[in-house]
């Protein structure tokens, strides 16, 4: 007998417990469906789900699934949708339900109209979290995580340099590594993957993205300073049986992705995620003699399995393997030119292997109580060279997180507590090839002595054991507070204390105020986080050292404070919302790179005074006319640091940014998306000591970027899309300083002064092919 596995009650119970491993046991999971003309169950997205007599509610997602907090004293759950008969269920000890709504036959024809933003603030959480659904990701090509934020004004993605194609996320005006990037609330992009890692997560693997501004939950660790980006990958209980995606752009970049889901038995299910991409052709649009993108290829796959016993136990495990190669530099560069002055070139080769598992138990008859264990292991091999600079590194990591959650008396008082362990072993060397004896590395030691060398070993081993406790108070009316703390012992850094608090005040049913405060701590991986320095001719100088471990500096430590105001409204019978954010980040300590003291050096130093960031953002989402959504946003940033010669604005960060996104969808499957961004002036580091032809202005001009995409959804299973990036063809005239002579004796060659687009207008096309929902025999 064949049936749709995603709609079975055991699977939904498994979904509840899966989420409980991330700390959500006091929730009810459900699936809302309707009977189509053929009598087959079909998911019903956008249905209203709420507890009778309360203001606590939610909506079903695109797959018909919902998750709602259990409310003490409330047992009547109402499910409704325009054009269908409402249903009221009595909830006792259930942890998962399935509801089939019947069509309301009073009218001969029912037209269902509604509006729901494809990306928006999670109104039920006190932690400031924006949820990006698959619908939002489909507004652009979204080939990987680094390209998933084209239509999201909260996250910036900028190139680290002008030759490697490496993109880095920025939040609250702070560089990407200050944002924790997790995969289903486990360590994701960190360590040696800090710069390249966001390009290792294909967009077709992503089910949704949760963007948290400011400090996150202490359950997930101490490393988030600017925020957390959590990526939820495709799961067997949410995936199609088969999904195929292809992409190609005019530079020859080609990608093919395949997702396959199978259900060998009632208790087991598996999903295989495959990715292959290549960029085979050299391209130099601006005719500066350097490739705009490196050539190369990537092969990447994940196989994950889930198990549901039906008796409270659930587990999942998975493996991932990746091989990524990049080669670039001057046009016609070959291996014969390596470490010579014939032509400048670089290579970045990455091999990465991961394994992870989760196991948990939900206590029978006690949906608020569960225990879960998360485990992962990673091996990351990074081999690269840039001209004469050689960077080779290997990372071996292991992670364990044990989480127990329950209540104190009733559901108004919940808590999570547990233990964690993190192991990182780095074997890392940086050297300047001896073929170029004029280059060297300068280290100014704490005792006043100076070492001049051509090779440095940055290897280290880190062991971190931690314990955490998080208390959640909810009066189920208008106040919710999450207060947590964790204490970790780091073998190099000593004891680390991390307190955090988040609050939500419901001023009215449509008006909420959130506040947060907390501390974040991280040990910077300075070389992988500054690819632009390695790819340039600047000498590396390490000064004002603070310790004998890692790179010679204390960990980055910062306090982050945030306020958020959100208002839902109805105008001309159509819905919308307004969100205003303000965040202030104040660093106690920071490892800083200074480009201004000398154009010939990159000075790394330990902060001795102030470094801070102010971020203010205003955003409006509204259904302007039927099926036409508009998103307007404006952000102001003030990011300053006390450098070696005084306080300056952080370079290459626009102080002002405005954003407009329009999305229109017709009834017959056409979708049109258009995005306009205006970026204000950016400070450019001082280049006055360069030769005249290699000097840059102190401030960049403001500019506008536009992108657009058209999608046609045919009757299942096909969709096709056509788009263009940088529609106005705006590019930097000379993105590389000293491109005409990369081996100049004055060290003028610099690839890191990137404040705008490197490549011009780029057309692309692709298709999506889906077959059915997951099922089993």
A few lines on this structure:
This protein is mainly β. Helices cover 3% and strands 53% of the residues.
Topology (SSEs and partners):
Layout: H1 9-20, E1 27-35, E2 41-43, E3 48-51, E4 57-59, E5 65-69, E6 76-80, E7 87-90, E8 96-100, E9 119-121, E10 129-132, H2 134-137, E11 156-159, E12 167-170, E13 179-183, E14 186-189, E15 206-213, E16 227-233, E17 240-249, E18 254-262, E19 268-279, E20 295-308, E21 313-329, E22 345-362, E23 370-386, E24 389-408, E25 410-432, E26 441-444, E27 450-453, E28 455-457, E29 460-474, E30 479-490, E31 494-508, E32 511-522, H3 531-534, E33 539-543, E34 556-571, E35 574-589, E36 591-594, E37 601-606, E38 611-625, E39 628-643, E40 646-649, E41 656-665, E42 670-679, E43 703-713, E44 718-725, E45 762-773
Parallel strand pairs: 1-8, 13-16, 26-33, 33-37
Antiparallel strand pairs: 1-2, 1-5, 3-4, 3-6, 6-7, 9-10, 10-15, 11-12, 13-14, 15-16, 17-18, 17-45, 18-19, 19-20, 20-21, 21-22, 22-23, 23-24, 24-25, 25-28, 25-29, 26-27, 29-30, 30-31, 31-32, 32-34, 34-35, 35-38, 36-37, 38-39, 39-40, 39-41, 41-42, 42-43, 43-44, 44-45
